[in-house]
Amino acid sequence: MRSRQALRLRRESFLELAKYWLLPIILGLVIGLSIFLLVNIYKMLNSASLLIVNWNPLLLLASTTIALLGGYLTIRLLAESKECGCGTELVIERYHFKSGFVSLRDTIGKTLASAITIGFGGSAGLEGPSLLLGGGISSFITRRLRLSQKDVKTLFLCGAAAGFSAIFKAPLTGILFALEIPYKRDVETEVFVPASIASITAYFTSAITLGTETIFPTPTFLMPTLPILVHAIFLGILAALVALAFMETFERTKAISKRLLGEFPMWVTTTIAGLLLGVMGLLYPEALGLGYDFIHKITITKLGEFGLATLTALLILKMIATSITLNFGGSGGLFIPSLYIGGTLGLIYAQILNLEPPVLCVMLAMAAVLAATSKSLLTSITLVAETMGPSFIIPTVVSAAVSYFLTGTRSLYWSQLLNKLSRQGFT
């Protein structure tokens, strides 16, 4: 009798070890390879788009129309859920209200739609489809293993963290973003260990297959001073205002989209929106697409390399282009556009006040806008610390905290709950 009980205990102990230590390693490996595939599909589509536009710049109008119509039709044909938009939003919604269930059709269909949208010039980030791809793969595997609903939900978030870490090449930032994004004022701490294992595995897999290059410059040393902290406060206030403007633009565009859908077929509104994106791109090409190149450029630029009029136009157009893309048939993420908008704001601030080095203002504003729009304070601080070095931490904490609290509970993600207590009403 005792031997049977001991055997049962050992079996249960092994299953726990396998679920939260060994399985996350497998998930990280599979998700890392899947991100490699996603990036290459995006690059292939983006190369096709560049060939079209280089042949005749006016064909950018056709490319951006393909971006939205292609994304919309892919979801209509392949996915079970016919909603277009932000992949991060879907991850949050499925985590809270579906216990981490995402069908394989939704995972593949919506990820492919995002690659088409961004590859052909839509304004969005790859982190949204990466979170969805990681979470969807985890959901598929854990359900095939017949794990409990609680385990499926836990490992769903681990998979999302792994997907983010693999695409963004910042494992600690990926871990914290996945754990912080479900709530506006809370963190899913119970998932930290398996999420860390899956994320680090996915990161190394991605680094081996895609390389370790990131969009940020080489870390630099900075001695925090009182003037720097004062600028950090002002940047936090400005970032809060810009973030509120971005969220308002996104929400109003969504409302306009819903109203137009009641009067016109989706393909008509999507085509018009695609043409409008193309016109923006003809005027300011940097406002479209993934935005990695522009973010990298503004983090290494010197004062005066960009005119204030150009930077202001890009800041406004990026808000509008992203809002149009994700509300009129396109799919993608909002993390990278938030960094783009924040970085542009920081460079404008540095240009006006003639502050050196401008990268300080750029990174502080990035963190501040991100903290406000996604309600991910720890993620924004960790992002700067992980990419720029620990000397940036103190001013980043100041800027990010100011914008985070000034914007209250407003967020780009309607599925975010306030905290874990809020979840009890849905369970």
Summarize the entry for a quick read.
The chain has 427 residues and is an all-alpha fold. The protein has 17 helices and 2 strands. Helix 6 (149-168) packs parallel to helix 8 (192-210) and helix 14 (358-374) packs antiparallel against helix 15 (377-388).
* Number of E strands: 2
Shape: globular
By helix and strand content, what is the structural category?
mainly alpha
Percent helix, as a range, is over 70%
- Straight-line N-to-C gap: 39 Å
Mean pLDDT across all amino acids: 89
> Order of strands across the widest beta sheet?
1-2
Helical run tally: 17
Order of helices and strands: HHEHHHHHHHHHHEHHHHH
Unreliably modeled segments:
none
The main β sheet shows up as: 2 strands, parallel
Note the beta-strand portion: under 5%
> Cα-atom Rg, whole angstroms?
21 Å
If you had to describe this structure to a student in words, what would you say it looks like?
Helices cover 74% and strands 1% of the residues. α2 (60-78) runs antiparallel to α4 (104-119), α14 (358-374) runs parallel beside α16 (393-406) and α15 (377-388) runs antiparallel to α16. The protein contains 17 helices and 2 strands. The chain has a two-stranded parallel ribbon. The two termini are 39 Å apart. The protein is mainly alpha-helical. The model has no long low-confidence stretch (mean pLDDT 89). It is globular.
